[in-house]
Amino acid sequence: MNEFVKSDLYRYTGKTDMLSFLKLYISSSVFRWQVAFRLVNSMGIEKYLGILLWRFNLSKDTIQIPRRTKVGYGLYIGHGTCGVVCNPTAIIGSNCNLSQWVTIGSNEEHSAQIGDNVYIGPGVCIVEDVKIGNNVTIGAGSVVTKDIPSNATAAGNYARVLNYRNPGRYIKNQWRGKDKDRI
């Protein structure tokens, strides 16, 4: 199984076995989108299977993350039947949670760079070329226009750092790599 697909599966189920994959693939349109996204960005025969899956995937209307967007291991999209929109120049780190109605956008050349173990709450807009550190929590409805340092919790319109307690607490089943251990 593709390592990216395996990492996404682990984020959802805490397992990487084929039965868990089949159950989630059948029951979740979001996970089916993620499998297509991961395979279309892979190499060899997997890429051709990914292109086929990508073409027939119905979640492309609600999850608008372009194929060329760089996304790390262990992506988790909560409530995926609601809109998620991302600029193709965005970089999303490993073990990131994207909630419903998240927008990562830019009118310029570069969009956000998001670190590892980042939870982005519902209705968050991340605007332009901001850098979000590792282990960050961004509260619901926030508008992020400035950099957020690592280990911070930020919220508001415009988002500001509220504290440095409990960073990344909403990131469950973190993927560490081939050893499949939790962080």
How much is the radius of gyration in Å? Answer: 16 Å
Fraction in helix = 10-25%
| Strand numbers in spatial order across the main sheet | 3-6-9-12-14-15
Could you say which structural class the secondary elements and strand pairing correspond to? alpha/beta
User: What is the second-level CATH architecture of the largest domain?
Assistant: 3 Solenoid
**SS summary, helix count:** 4
Distance between the termini: 22 Å
Main sheet: strands, sense, barrel? 6 strands, mixed
Q: Name the average pLDDT.
A: 90
Please tell me the total number of domains: 2
Q: Which CATH class of the largest domain applies here?
A: Mainly Beta
Unreliable residue runs:
179-183
Question: Which percent range describes the beta-strand content?
Answer: 15-25%
CATH topology term of the largest domain: UDP N-Acetylglucosamine Acyltransferase, domain 1
| Inertia-based shape | globular
What do we call the CATH homologous superfamily of the largest domain? Hexapeptide repeat proteins
